[in-house]
């Protein structure tokens, strides 16, 4: 086989659809193996559809005078950040013999134990992988969703399957990849995100942002989507299409979330969607229930350079006790305006948002307890864990704070078995339906956990 084509080319292109400039092999070699039937190509744009991202929205296509074909070409603006796909730029994929994955022994090396709720979910995940079916794991924040995947992933790897764990956010990839590498030390785990050094790696276990799946095609035997309700995945149909096309037609599909949307919740209740719930955290403590605190017209107060009294009091209490805290604000503009006001209370208060170039370093400082209070947008509503924090939401009635966002934000509190409790406060100028639904969601999960004997406190 290696005499017929370079095995590096085979492993690089298998399960991918890529532009020529993304393939680190000469065009002459690609053309040769296309003639031999090992590589095929498709136009990047076909009848107003992008074959990479699945975009069909007319306003997201544009035309340009193309130097390559000397005609006016159409290109896709939806995925332009990954390189221009146009009518005359083909996408190449491997159609020759598939590379073999050989894993002789069980690669899982983990000596932890699962809670009763985790054990039931773990068995369901294994069953879904074995039967190549779909499953929704509806688990509260801090239930230990990653740990329930271990046995299922292990079984898939032993059967020489390719597994992908996809998530909408880079932060989650950066947190998951080292955890999976630790428990599967003999497997080279690929972590894929914008600028990742693993983008050329062929691995049986891949952790990727959903955006990176635009480059894959029928690659995975098992696809697990973490935080399936998170922005932008839940609103972007092209990302959902990317997940679908990256999986083989017979692939097992596992979805993880603490906050399924209303449609999925209804499908669960009516028996139309297979699911398993984990209503309790692994440490068997109840979920912290939010406190609603009226703080007046907080927008006017901040405009005057004043922190509303209830928010200031809450913040000072944490400072005096030396307790770490996250304070969520509805947008970057407000956060940047108010950060100096908060720093007057204590110099060790930082702020972070999605476009912050120092975002990773600031989150790491918080993890190391070098920062006491971190102001943040919803970028930290999920995917990060700080063991002993309190949380405040400023302007909880703002539209950005949906039911799912508020449940996830509340889930930042009490995640550690050493510190299973904490304070979550919604500061508001009037209650909203989303606030009430988030509160009731948490109450209902605690009730179900108690009824099933899954919590002690």
UniProtKB/TrEMBL annotation:
Citing just one GO molecular function, the answer is:
ATP binding
What InterPro entries does this protein's entry cite?
Answer: Helicase/UvrB_N, Helicase_ATP-bd, Helicase_C-like, P-loop_NTPase
**Coiled-coil residues:** none
GO biological process: one example: DNA recombination
Q: Which SMART domains match?
A: DEXDc (SM00487), HELICc (SM00490)
Which keywords annotate this record?
ATP-binding, DNA-binding, Nucleotide-binding
Q: Which domain of life is it from?
A: Bacteria
PANTHER family with a match to the protein in the record: COMF OPERON PROTEIN 1, PRIMOSOMAL PROTEIN N
User: What protein name applies here?
Assistant: Uncharacterized protein
């Amino acid at each position: 086989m290696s005499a017929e084509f370079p095995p590096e080319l085979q492993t690089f292109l298998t399960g991918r659809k890529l532009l020529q400039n993304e393939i680190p092999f000469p065009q002459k070699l690609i053309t040769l193996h296309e003639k031999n039937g090992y590589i095929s190509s498709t136009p990047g744009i076909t009848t107003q559809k992008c074959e990479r991202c699945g975009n069909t929205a007319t306003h997201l296509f544009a035309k340009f005078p193309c130097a390559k074909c000397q005609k006016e070409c159409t290109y896709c603006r939806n995925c332009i950040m990954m390189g221009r796909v146009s009518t005359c730029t083909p996408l190449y994929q491997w159609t020759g013999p598939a590379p073999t994955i050989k894993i002789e022994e069980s690669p899982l090396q983990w000596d932890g134990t699962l809670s009763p709720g985790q054990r039931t979910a773990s068995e369901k995940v294994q069953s879904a992988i074995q039967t190549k079916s779909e499953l929704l794991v509806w688990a509260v924040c801090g239930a230990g969703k990653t740990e329930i995947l271990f046995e299922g992933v292990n079984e898939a790897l032993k059967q020489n399957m390719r597994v992908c764990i996809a998530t909408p956010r880079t932060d989650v990839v950066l947190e998951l990849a080292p955890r999976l590498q630790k428990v599967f030390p003999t497997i080279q785990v690929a972590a894929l995100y914008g600028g990742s050094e693993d983008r050329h790696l062929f691995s049986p276990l891949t952790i990727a942002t959903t955006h990176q799946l635009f480059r894959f095609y029928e690659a995975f035997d098992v696809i697990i989507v973490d935080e399936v309700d998170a922005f932008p995945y839940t609103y972007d149909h092209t990302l959902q299409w990317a997940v679908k096309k990256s999986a083989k037609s017979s692939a097992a599909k596992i979805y993880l979330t603490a906050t399924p949307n209303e449609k999925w919740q209804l499908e669960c209740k009516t028996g139309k969607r297979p699911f398993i719930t984990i209503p309790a955290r692994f440490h068997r403590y109840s979920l912290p229930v939010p406190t609603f605190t009226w703080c007046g017209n907080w927008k006017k107060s901040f405009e005057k350079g004043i922190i509303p009294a209830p928010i200031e009091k809450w913040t000072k209490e944490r400072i005096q006790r030396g307790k770490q805290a996250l304070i969520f604000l509805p947008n970057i503009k407000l956060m940047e305006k108010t950060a100096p006001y908060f720093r007057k209370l204590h110099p060790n208060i930082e702020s972070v948002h999605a476009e912050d170039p120092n975002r990773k370093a600031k989150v790491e400082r918080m993890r190391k307890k070098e920062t006491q209070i971190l102001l943040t947008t919803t970028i930290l509503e999920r995917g990060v864990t700080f063991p002993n924090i309190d949380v405040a939401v400023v302007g909880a009635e703002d539209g950005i704070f949906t039911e799912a966002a508020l449940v996830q934000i509340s889930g930042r509190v009490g995640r550690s078995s050493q510190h299973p409790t904490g304070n979550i406060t919604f500061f508001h100028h009037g209650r909203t339906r989303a606030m009430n639904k988030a509160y009731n969601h948490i109450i209902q999960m605690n009730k179900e956990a108690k009824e099933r004997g899954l919590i002690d406190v």
